[in-house]
Write a structure and sequence with these properties.
- It is built from eleven helices and 14 strands.
- It is an alpha/beta fold.
- A hairpin with a 4-residue loop joins strand 4 and strand 5 (78-81).
- The longest helix is centred in the middle third of the chain and has 15 residues, at 156-170.
């Protein structure tokens, strides 16, 4: 098994619980790159939020962001982009505000929310970026060039409910998905980490069988199914573990490094 492209999720996978890349993970990735394997990131995060981690790895490769809606290299070259329709953004926004759900919008790689609440502050700290408070009315002015919207909840049960309701109301127009216990992400139908992986393979001239993907959450499922080889983190949920070929250690014990050393390094 010769792996020429290794794709890793960020949160809960490459990053530990304190949102850091461990020395072991970085070392294993650099060893893989040294032998000729392309290592890249696929994340639900904004490009601006994922970029510092890609730079830490010291590789200039395309990174998949916004759950597949944007593929952009570390040096800034855009390979693919997909945006929600403006009317869909407005209608989903209206629905969520009526429900009194916390929703934020991403536009032109910037973050906007109606109020700077505790959820907004927690997200800013996690993502390492600052958003802009524009009020509910201001959100309606940010509906063009939106790759993703995000509802932040208080826990997994509420997130499941939000995803189910959004699929019932807008399932033919947008694709809601649970990316972690507190996040319900809203992206375009047909846009996910799998479709982004396929586009990346075309750009790189590689075959599916030459790829390995690793992840832990529901938004990783399409990518894990689309890769030639798949690895579930030890902290992955049961759905992820059920579709993967292999399982590795959890994100607090260098699971990515363990997978690279066992399955990628020659």
């Amino acid at each position: 098994m010769a792996i020429k492209l290794f794709v890793t999720d960020l949160d809960g996978t490459l990053l530990d619980k304190k949102h850091r890349i461990s020395a072991e993970n970085k070392k294993a990735i650099q060893e893989a790159v040294a032998q000729g394997t392309i290592v890249t990131i696929a994340t639900g995060r904004m490009y601006i939020s994922a970029l510092p981690y890609a730079k830490q790895l010291e590789v200039d490769v395309p990174i998949i962001t916004y759950n597949g809606a944007l593929i952009k290299s570390v040096s800034g070259k855009v390979l693919f982009e997909s945006y929600l329709k403006s009317q869909d953004v407005k209608d989903v926004l209206t629905y969520c505000l009526k429900k009194k759900w916390f929703i934020q919008i991403y536009k032109d790689d910037k973050l906007y929310f109606a109020e700077h609440s505790a959820k907004a502050r927690a997200y800013e700290e996690l993502a390492g970026i600052k958003g802009e408070t524009v009020g509910p009315e201001g959100l309606y002015e940010k509906t063009e060039h939106v790759p993703k919207m995000l509802v932040i909840t208080s826990g997994a049960e509420e997130t499941d409910k939000v995803v189910a309701e959004l699929r019932e109301a807008f399932g033919t127009r947008v694709f809601p998905v649970k990316s972690n216990p507190n996040y319900a992400e809203i992206i375009s139908i047909g846009v996910n980490k799998a479709t982004a992986l396929e586009k990346l393979l075309q750009k790189l001239g590689l075959e599916k069988e030459e790829t390995m993907a690793i992840g832990d959450s529901n938004n990783d499922l399409p990518m894990l199914k689309a890769a030639g080889h798949s690895v579930a983190m030890g902290n992955a949920n049961d759905k992820v573990k059920a579709v993967c070929n292999y399982e590795t250690a959890d994100c607090s014990h260098d699971g990515v490094a363990a997978a690279i050393r066992k399955y990628v390094l020659k």
